[in-house]
Specification:
The structure holds two protein chains of two kinds. Chain A folds into two domains: 39 residues, no CATH class; 152 residues, no CATH class. Chain A is elongated and about 65 Å long. Chain A is built from one helix and eight strands; from the N terminus they run βαβββββββ. Chain A starts with 18 loop residues before the first strand and ends in a 5-residue tail after the last strand. Helix content of chain A is 11%, strand content 59%. In chain A, strands 2, 3, 4, 5, 6, 7 and 8 form a seven-stranded antiparallel β-sheet that branches. Chain B is of the alpha+beta class. Chain B has three domains: 122 residues, no CATH class; 157 residues, no CATH class; 154 residues, no CATH class. Helix content of chain B is 37%, strand content 19%. Chain B contains 17 helices and eleven strands. Chain B has a ten-stranded antiparallel β-sheet. In chain B, β5 and β6 form a beta hairpin. Chain B is rod-shaped. The N terminus of chain B is likely disordered.
Chain lengths: 205, 543
């Protein structure tokens, strides 16, 4: 009976009750934190690009000025858990810069707020795709636009197109001032986020 | 030995080794961890055993059934497979217990046994480190995929390039590291380091490390797993519950000072044994890091959630930066590094498309001009006689939308208007006869509404004013309004007015170049427009 306490039969190496040795912990933890802090710093200075891929109905984006090259937009639908169908406008921009970007995400009871691109250096993004059920802009300027094109034949942002027969539009370039959009889903290949700041607070609009 | 098998188990036998102990109880469901084999292999099943082990029944349920029978003592044998140190004690106790009291007592004993088994399992590996890694992975996966789960809308997920994949990939790998640390702890060092590296890399790869939360969880979990070592600081024999859990005198007893639960031991610090408080360090850290992460995120800023009171110690730092990493907070960095336009923009082919997006782009995709010649003029048009003289206009280079659409505006000014004739415009549903107008510019104002109906839904684009510049080309199936404000006009490809307009196209073009044609209550059906430039004010796209 005396021997029962010290081992379970299945694990020869890791079987005995163990503990955390805090020096070992620190050996990994401290350098990892340092590396993470370095990455964060580089990202905040716009040196490194980050990937963003967020979904959720309470995801809001504002930007004082969006400049994009290679713009497509077409209709789609999102169905929520209640079975309701929400039409959304799916916008794809090949490369974009966004001044004074603000993104707010509802994370449970909190609203996570991410701002970047202030102070003269805008955020730049590539392969941006946004599903928005609402988009507003005080002024929107497009060049070489086509409105009413078949959504399946859109070519300005290669790889992003809708279903054949749908209503779509595309343009070589786009500029939208005071952009506000309520998105269901946003993806971007890369994001450079100069002046990154993450906080909890109010939604962007 | 042999007598113990036949007698329905004389639990009073006190084996000296775990292995021996297991050998001694074959009649009660050997092997203990596979109860479905129990009755078949036992040489002589104990009384009451015939009903208990159901094929596929987990051990704790088997124990449940057995509890009602007189052979209540069997239960510990089956459930405590992972904690054999208790088994003998429980068995001992049950010999002296009355069978009537068995059931009630056994419930508590089984719960303790299960808990004990779990605890033994937990302590034999870096449990808390693995748990944090798994949580980190879940959090990272949840951010991009939450709406897919919540809204059941896989079809709208569009991942372009490697960016979208990273979010799921790193989260999945983190979860794998955590699970492997649990179930294959021998290699925990590798999994721990891999988890830490993945967590750090996730900052650039996936939503800033799941907005820091997943990254912190992963780094902490991986470090905990790395720091965990087996076996040290543990006392050897008979460490706990010398009397056994199932003892009648102790069944309902509250935990005593000499056997506190681990959680109590942490809090009360009663446990003076040297190894114990250190042993639970992983859990302490795991328990600590979660509220630290959460509350640390909540501290500044005006939290609108119900947990606002947690922010009582709000730092004076600028309300609006979280995470005690100073770099990210102010960062007024007008860094010289221009926003380097990200390199790998080629993306499109990388999207394997779980979605119907890369749609079977009909006919056009590659060569924009290909469909221009496509719609051959149908000579046998029904109105061929009426429009025999009608010139055919060029079709657009791209396919037009087949969705029902309409553009309305309170008023319009048409500059340099000419009607070019009928055009056969390709759509996904076949060719459609449309009118083709050319304008030098077009201005719309007042309640401009573009309504598009497709797939049972309607999308509306509104604007207060629109200006089309450059060469403007407008295709439409129908154009109506009040010309000059008071002459109602409805143009369709077959209307006689269209013919006249076409005949005088050069005149109208010259005339309207200088003085635009005003039109009110403009309605354009199936508009297909190309313009060199387009400016919209007060643009609002919604439903």
């Amino acid at each position: 009976m005396a021997s029962f306490g010290n081992s379970t039969p299945e694990l020869p190496a890791g079987s005995a009750p163990g503990r955390v040795r805090w020096r070992r912990f620190a050996i990994v933890f401290v350098p990892a934190l340092a590396a993470a802090a370095t990455l964060i710093g580089l990202t905040a200075q716009g040196v490194l690009a980050a990937n963003i891929s967020v979904s959720g109905s309470a995801f809001k984006i504002t930007s004082s000025e969006l400049n994009g090259n290679g713009f497509v937009q077409f209709g789609g639908v999102v169905s929520d858990s209640g079975g309701h169908v929400h039409p959304v406008a799916i916008s794809g921009i090949r490369t974009a810069t966004l001044a004074n970007l603000c993104q707010s995400v509802a994370a449970g009871p909190f609203i996570l707020r991410l701002t970047a691109g202030g102070g003269g250096t805008p955020v730049s993004a590539s392969n941006l795709v946004v599903d928005a059920d609402q988009q507003t802009g005080s002024t929107a300027i497009f060049h070489n636009i086509t409105i009413g094109q078949d959504a399946g034949s859109l070519t300005s942002d290669p790889g992003v197109a809708g279903q054949a027969g749908g209503f779509g539009q595309q343009a070589d370039s786009v500029t939208i001032d005071n952009l506000q959009q309520n998105t269901w889903l946003t993806t971007a290949g890369t994001f450079t986020l100069p002046g990154l700041s993450l906080s909890f607070g109010k939604a962007c609009y | 030995m042999a007598s113990s098998e036949g007698s329905g188990g004389s639990p009073g036998q006190e084996p000296a080794e775990p292995s021996l102990h297991e050998e001694f109880t074959p009649g009660r469901g050997w092997p203990p961890r596979e109860p479905e084999d129990g009755p078949a292999t036992g040489p002589e099943p104990a009384p009451g055993e015939g009903t208990s082990p159901v094929r596929g029944t987990p051990p704790w349920e088997v124990a449940d059934r057995a509890a009602g029978s007189a052979a209540a003592a069997q239960a510990p044998d089956e459930t405590a497979a992972a904690a054999p140190d208790e088994t003998s004690a429980a068995t001992l106790d049950d010999t002296s217990a009355a069978a009537e009291a068995g059931k009630q007592r056994m419930t508590g004993a089984r719960a303790r046994d299960a808990r004990q088994a779990f605890r033994t399992w937990r302590r034999s590996r870096p449990f808390w480190g693995g748990l944090l890694l798994i949580l980190a992975g879940l959090e990272m996966i949840a951010i991009p995929l939450l709406s897919v789960v919540a809204h059941n809308s896989v079809k709208v997920v569009i991942y372009i390039g490697i960016g979208g994949i990273f979010g799921v990939l790193i989260g999945g790998l983190l979860m794998a590291c955590g699970l492997l640390i649990w179930f294959h702890p021998v290699q925990r060092v590798f999994y721990a380091i891999a988890g830490v590296l993945l967590a750090v890399a996730s900052f650039v790869a996936t939503n800033l490390g799941g907005f820091f939360i997943g990254m912190l969880l992963g780094v902490t979990g991986g470090s905990l797993s790395f720091g965990w070592t087996p076996g040290a600081g543990r006392e050897q024999p008979g460490r706990e519950r010398p009397g056994g859990p199932g003892s009648p005198g102790r069944a309902g007893r509250a935990p005593q000072a000499d056997e506190p639960s681990d959680g109590l031991g942490i809090v009360l610090r009663r446990d003076t044994r040297p190894g114990d408080h250190r042993r639970s360090g992983g859990r302490l850290m795991a328990l600590a890091i979660t509220p630290v992460v959460v509350s640390g995120l909540m501290l500044p800023g005006s939290v609108s959630g119900p947990m606002r009171q947690a922010a009582s110690t709000r730092p004076a730092a600028q309300a609006g930066c979280i995470i005690p990493i100073p770099i990210i907070c102010p960062s007024p960095s007008p860094s010289p590094t221009a926003p380097a336009t990200p390199g790998p923009t080629t993306g499109p082919s990388a999207s394997p498309g779980p979605i119907p997006i890369l749609a079977p782009a009909p006919t056009v995709a590659g060569s924009p001009g290909s469909s221009a010649s496509g719609p051959a003029q149908p000579t046998g048009s029904p109105s061929a006689s009426a429009s025999a003289r009608a010139r055919a206009a060029a079709a657009p280079a791209q396919m037009a939308s087949a969705a029902q659409s309409s553009l309305t505006a309170d008023s319009a000014f048409l500059y340099g208007l000419s009607y070019d004739g009928r055009a056969q415009v390709a759509t996904a549903n076949g060719t459609v006869t449309m009118m083709k107008f050319s304008l030098s510019s077009l201005t719309l104002s007042g309640h401009i509404t573009l309504t598009v109906s497709q797939g049972g839904t309607t999308a509306v684009t509104q604007s207060s004013s629109m200006q089309f510049g450059g060469p403007v080309v407008l295709y439409a199936t129908k154009l109506s309004g009040n010309l000059l404000g008071f002459v109602p006009v409805t143009l369709t490809p077959d209307s006689p007015i269209a013919l006249i307009l076409q005949a005088v196209a050069r005149i109208t073009q010259a005339l309207t170049q200088a003085t635009p044609v005003p039109m009110t209550n403009v309605v354009t059906d199936q508009p297909y427009t190309t313009a060199g430039s387009f400016q919209a004010s007060g643009l609002r796209i919604g439903t």
